[in-house]
Amino acid sequence: MPARVLNNLSTTILSILDAPWYHLILEICLVLWVIWLIRKKKKTEKADIVLTPEEEEEIIREWRPQALVDDMLEEDEELINYQSTAWASVEGRPGKYITVEGKKYLNLATHNYLGFVEDESVIQEAENCIRRYGVGSCGPRGFYGTFDVHLKLEEKIAEFMSLEETALYSYGFATISSAIPSYAKKGDIIFVDEEVNFAIQKGLQASRSTIVYFRHNDYNHLEDLLDQQAKRDSKNPRKAKSQRRFCVVEGIYQKTGTICPLVQVNQLCLKHKVRLFVDESISLGALGNTGRGITEHFNVPVQDIDFIAGTMEYAFASFGGFIVGSSYVVDHQRISGLGYCFSASLPPFLAGAGMKAVEVLMENPNIVQELQTNSEYMHNVLMDLKGFELSGDPLSPIKFLTLRHSTGSRLEDHQLLDQIIIHVKDNFGIAIVQPAILENQEHRVPPPSLRVSVNRLLSKEEMNQVKLGLDSANDSLLQNLFGDGEGHGAEDCSGMESY
C-alpha cells in the first residue's frame, strides 16, 4: 500500500479518536438508520400482495372513477344552458340583412359594426387571397404556417395601434385565454372585473393564479383591494418581491355593453405597479375618433397598457385575434402563447380580408362616427321601451334588453324572450337574439336578455322599426302575462345569488 494512502488513513483514524464521544454516537446512529431504511425499502419492493379472484372482483365492483371536471353546481341550483330555438340556419352572407329559409330579415343579431361583411374591397381581397394561397394554412405559425399575408396584417395592426409588434392568433377566443396564462402563473395575483367575458375567465383558470374580483366598473373597490394587498405586502416583503400582480379589464364589456373607466383603472395600476391587460375585442373600431379603441376614447397613452387583446371577428368582419404591444411582450407571446404555438395559423384569405378592413378604416375614419351616431340613436330609441330594461353605454354597439318583470324562473324567462324574438321576426322582419351563456361555468351569470347589435349601415327608420317591433311584442306578450305590470323583480332570475 503506498505511503500516501497510509498517511491519509492514519490521519482519519486519529481524527475519529479525537472527536467527542457524543459526536461518534450520533454518526453511528445515522449510519445504522440509513442501512435500516435501505433494507426496509428492498423488502417493501419485494413484498407482493396476492389477492384471491373473489377479492379482485370485489375491488373492481367497488371502484368508482374520479370525474374529470368537478361538479360546480349545488343540488338546489337551477342553472341551465338554454339553447334558443327561435332561429334556423342562415343562408348566405350575414350582412345588413340575413336570409333564413328564403326570407330576408334586418340583421341586428351579428357583430358587423362597421359593415365590412358587405364591403366589396374586403370581399375582393379575400377572393384574391384564395386564388393565391388557397383556403388553409395547414400548420402552426412556427411550422410552415406563416404566410407573408400574416406578417403584413401584423404590421398593419401594429401601425394602426401605434405600437411595436403584433402576434396574430387563428381564433379570437383563444387569444386572451392563451395570453393571460403565458404571463401569470401560480402564486401571482390577478385583479379582475367581475363581468369579464368567458374567454378571459378561461385564461384566468389556466393561469392558476390567485384571482381577486372587484365590482363591475367600481374603481373605488379596486383601489380598496389594491390597498389591502399593499398592506399584506408590507408585512411579508420577501413574498411580495417574487409575486407578480396583474389587472384585466375590457374596453366594452361583452356581457353588459358598458365602457370601462380606464383612466382611473390605469392610474391605480401605475400607482401600485400592477400590469394592466385590456381586451378590446368590441371597443376596437367602435370607440375613439378613428376607431382605435378605449385608449383613444379616454386619451390614455397606449404605452401605459402592458398588452391589448383584440379580435378580427366583430368590427373587422374577418376571423382570428391578436395581441399588440411592445416587442418584449409580443416576443414572449410567440413562444409562450399556447393558442399561437400549437394551433394552425389563420387561413390566409381571412388575414387578407382583415388587413383590407383595417386599411379601409384607416383611410375612412368617418365610418366610426357613423357607427357611434347610430349607437347613440339606437340607445335613445330603446330607452323608451315598455316592458324592458336597457343596459349598455350609449356609444356601445351592443345593447342588452332584460325583462322589466321576471316570471320568477330563468327557463321561463328564456322561453318568453324566444317568443318575443319570433314575434319581432315574423311581424316586423327583424333579427335579434339572446346571447349564449354557459350558465354552469360563468363566474357571474347575467339575467336572460335580448342582444341588439348596431351597425353603421342602419337608417333611422330601420332603428325606429325595432322599437315598434319590441313595443308590439310588449303589448302582445308581456301585457297579457303581467297585466298592469305587477310581477316578480328582475333579481328573481339573475342567478347571481349562488355565486
Would you give an account of this structure?
- The chain is α/β, with parallel strands linked by helices and 499 residues long.
- The protein folds into two domains: 90-112 and 365-493, Aspartate Aminotransferase, domain 1, CATH 3.90.1150.10; 119-363, Aspartate Aminotransferase, domain 2 (3-Layer(aba) Sandwich), CATH 3.40.640.10.
- The protein has 17 helices and 14 strands.
- The chain has helices at residues 3-18, 21-46, 53-62, 120-133, 148-161, 172-183, 198-207, 219-235, 237-242, 262-272, 294-298, 327-336, 338-342, 348-363, 366-383, 410-428, 460-482, and strands spanning 90-91, 97-100, 103-107, 165-169, 189-193, 210-214, 245-250, 275-279, 307-311, 321-325, 388-391, 398-403, 430-431, 449-453.
- The strands form three sheets. The protein has a seven-stranded mixed beta sheet with strand order 4-10-9-8-7-5-6, with helices on both faces. It has a four-stranded mixed beta sheet with strand order 1-2-3-13. The protein has a three-stranded antiparallel beta sheet with strand order 11-12-14.
- Helix 7 (198-207) links the parallel strand 5 (189-193) and strand 6.
- Helix 4 (120-133) packs antiparallel against helix 14, helix 6 runs parallel beside helix 7 (198-207) and helix 15 (366-383) packs parallel to helix 17.
- The longest helix is centred in the N-terminal third of the chain and has 26 residues, at 21-46.
- The radius of gyration is 31 Å and the shape is elongated.
